[in-house]
Description:
Layout: E1 6-10, E2 13-18, E3 27-34, H1 37-47, E4 56-61, H2 67-82, E5 87-96, H3 101-110, E6 117-121, E7 124-125, H4 127-130, E8 138-142, E9 155-156, H5 157-166, E10 172-176, H6 186-191, H7 195-202, E11 210-215, E12 218-222, E13 228-233, E14 238-241, H8 250-257, E15 262-265, H9 271-274, E16 282-286, H10 287-295, E17 313-317, E18 322-324, E19 329-334, E20 343-347, E21 352-356, E22 365-369, H11 374-396, E23 400-403, H12 433-447, H13 453-458, E24 463-466, E25 469-475
Parallel strand pairs: 3-4, 3-5, 5-6, 6-8, 8-10, 14-15, 15-16, 16-17, 21-23, 22-25
Antiparallel strand pairs: 1-2, 2-4, 7-9, 11-12, 12-13, 13-14, 18-19, 19-20, 20-21, 24-25
Amino acid sequence: MLETRxxxxxxGVEYYFVPGRQEExxxxxxxxxxxxxxxxxxALEVLDNGNNPGGALAAAIVPDLxxxxxxxALADLVFALRQRPGVSATRISLTGSIACGDQVWxxxxxxxxxxxxxxxVGGHGDPYAVRSxxxxxxxxxxxxxxxRADGGLPAAGERLVAGLRxxxxxxxxxxxxxxxxLGEHAWDxxxxxxxxxxxxxxxxxKRQFTVSFVKPGVWCIEDYFTSCCYLVEGRERAVxxxxxxxxxxxxxxxxxxxxxxxxxxxTHPHGDHMRGADxxxxxxxxxxxxxxxxxxxxxxxGVWTPGSTARPELVPIREGSRIDLGxxxxxxxxxxxxxxxxxxxxxxxxxLLFTGDAVGSGYxxxxxxxxxxLTECISHYAAxxxxxAERHLEEVRGYGWLGGHKIQENGCDDxxxxxxxxxxxxxxxxxxxxxxxxxLALCRRILDGTVTLAxxxxxxxxxxSFGTAGMFFRFxx
Length: 477
């Protein structure tokens, strides 16, 4: 496929691009960071020597800039490649020549959500930053004598992988390069037989989850779609709140976290919160959503696994329903608006409130309706917010509020959401009581005409905001 390569430029970064095979959802892409044009062309020859499984290739020439500017330019390139037609945004892997090993570690550490796999050949990095790759399949090739004996920083691959394992990674490996194969062609030898490239292209972010500890008995599980589900343990049972959109083995992951029987509790039946719910034996869902699902099984796409005839026990919940786990009780509290029958779950034992998308995710609440339904939709949301504030706000004011898309507390700009990993964040808006109160005030501004439909339609995202709250409208007409 080398005859199809093109020399391209993105924000000052030159790169050679070789398209991959045509397939639904786009082909995998392997991005190689190289020190110059000659090295980039040689890398493409090595990768595309008949052993390429069919993925796209990009050999980028690292620009001669200060490290911060260099990283931002490369990040702009990756962001553009994620949106390139014919490329699967969830199957972009990263590698680089020996000369660019440091840049591979740095770029991967600061943008882990963008890479389905990493192969670092040599290079050094910050072991604390590298821990962001805890759920990313990674291979580090290290050279004899490359590691410092005094424990100083930056660290080479052996210590970086050790740090990942300490942080909980089970998908990072370290491989020593044969001293007989040292030199500038060591990278070529690693990739010549095609096995490493095939491994890179097999990885898919859709099958990967990131697990983080919240507090004893509570874990957060994030997927490629930035959806979050939460595992909550009691003495006798556990509950998974929502399922997210991930296509990996979520039940298997949950079983690895708790020996207790696990049921599913759903905040609302959207595909990014209830996908594959039939993989769990018992599902707690708002009673009106159960009725709607019985009337029209296709109303909520994606909630059942395609091809599966298994159906869980559906347990209806409403305002005040209690899910007793033994010493831990989740109370269902109605907070409709994002969907008509959305609920949140209050956990007094852990002092946590699991909000789904009911009050947004730190940036916006997504509202879905026709244009002629705007007043009805917002009136319903305002009434639900007001009722919730009167019934529950004082009780949960001191709780931690955990939303359905945690990373959106950093905003919804995909290019900037991971800036916190490099200490560059300029936005942080976690879900909390003030967001709910401002959301109610925003509803009232829409209802009294301060915010008009014409103004909403005039913005690209049909967006409006007040204080800490924002709404993004998806009009269905």
